[in-house]
Amino acid sequence: MSSNTFQILNAVDVSKHIEKKQNLSYLSWAWAWSTVKGLFPETVYKIYENVNGLNYHTDGMTAWVKVGVTIKEVEYIEYLPVMDFRNKSIALGGLTSMDVNKAIQRALTKAIARHGLGLYIYAGEDLPEQGETTQEKPKLAPPSKASSDDKKQAWKDFQEICETMGVDAIEFLSADIDMEDKTLVYGTVRKWLNSEDLLKQQLINFKNS
Amino acid sequence: MKISSNFNRFYWKVFIADIKQNLKELRWNNIDLNITRLNEQGVHDLLKIVTFHNKSLTEMENKEVVEFLEDIRVLLSDNGYTLQIDNEEWERIIKEIR
Q: Looking at the domain assignment, is residue B49 inside a domain?
């Protein structure tokens, strides 16, 4: 009943558990985890280590974490850069174990959201870190100001990448967002096009799931 | 349990439909669930989770089905909702299952 797993988690009212920081909303990872375990006790998560047994991955310049959450044999994997309070990647030399730990907690909450819990609060925004003092929203051009040609081109580019990876673009997007909401679809497509490598990795995960 | 057409009608058309149409929210273990976001199959699956009856109806013994229905009624009562079905019909259905 994997589709109903999503439906049930998506039906959980998270409104009382949303905390606000600098106009952005976020969910406590502890609450998200206890809720998902309450409804689906067999849920497990996995923090993927690198070949050296470290709990983060690196390309030599920055780092990211990889966390998977499995419910009823369906695993969603979240890759999240290790970021500072401005949501900027931290250079490898400045990385601390606390930064990695925070990234893992955020990735865990986002992986749970892929299963449906509080997914809507992620639409169009990323979670801020606790204790931050300043936060700028990602500066995406407002979809309404994009010309129809821009939107068509973005969609075409997005579809081409998906096709190259052997994934149906609509199927991929509809797993996470409401396809009826054209503004959300365009915003999501633009976001993915801005991080093509991450998109390709997620398409591989999606294909294998 | 062998699902009779009579029970099927009762369960999906009366029981589940009643919950789906009339109950907006369900609180269970400090989790608030928005029932309006679920379809009828989703309501059915949710009820199995929150009553800890994980088997399908066909795999349950008759006694277990009765317990399942009673547990749902208690849960709804805890949420301040009473099913539209009248006591007479309820007793008749329960008797039939037993």
A: yes
A11–B49: do the CB atoms touch at under 8 Å? no
Q: How much is the average pLDDT of A77-81?
A: 95
Task: Report pLDDT digits (tens) over A175-198.
Answer: 777 777 777 788 888 878 877 777
- How many of the other CB atoms lie within 10 Å of CB of A72? 13
Contact (CB<8Å) A1/B31: no
Whether A4 sits inside 8 A of B35 (CB atoms) is no
Within a domain: B13: yes
B47 found inside a domain:
yes
- pLDDT digit string, tens, across residues A24-58: 677 899 999 999 999 999 999 999 999 999 999 99
**Whether residue A135 has pLDDT greater than 50:** no
Q: With b meaning 16 or more CB within 10 Å and e meaning fewer, what string describes A125-140?
A: ebbbbeeeeeeeeeee
> Does the residue B1 lie in any domain?
no
Q: What is the mean pLDDT of residues A99-113?
A: 94
Quick one: closest CA in A to B45, which residue?
A: A4
In Å, how far are A29, A139, B35 from B30, measured between CA atoms? Answer: 16, 37, 15
- Owning domain of residue B52: 6-97
Interface-testing mutation among A2, A6, A7, A40, with chain B (most B C-beta atoms within 10 A):
A7
Q: Domain count of chain B?
A: 1
Cβ–Cβ contact B27 with A under 8 A: no
State whether A8 and B38 contact (CB < 8 Å). yes
DSSP-based three-state secondary structure for A89: strand
Residue range A78-88: mean pLDDT, rounded? 89
Q: What is the pTM of this model?
A: 0.67
Pair of tokens at residue A193: 């096009």
| Nearest-angstrom CA–CA distance, A126 and A128 | 6
Locate the chain B residue with the closest alpha carbon to A12.
B33
